[in-house]
Amino acid sequence: TTMPWKLPIDPLHRPSGYFTQGYYHPTFLYEMILNGIGLFILSKRTFKKEGQLTLAYLLVFSTSRFITEIFRINDRLVAGLSLAQIISLLLISLSTFFLLKITNTKSASRR
Description:
Strand order of the largest sheet: 1-2
Radius of gyration: 19 Å
């Protein structure tokens, strides 16, 4: 990368096939920032039903991971996606489905 916040990696620690590239994206930093933004947003929301916060966090984390993986040099398996991105898409879909299901379900009346 040529970004000003590029991360130099010593030649001894570079991944195979990337010996000529000296600078890389600090993906750990990207993921930390995205997760921090997501947690800040979640902390400002009110969750009334059991499981909503957990599913919302799973949605935020999976989305953050999917975006971060764009900048990583992991192997691409299907449609240009890494294994982590495929798993993230699965978790995004499941957490969205169950979050909508919980949110739209009326609470059972107590006897």
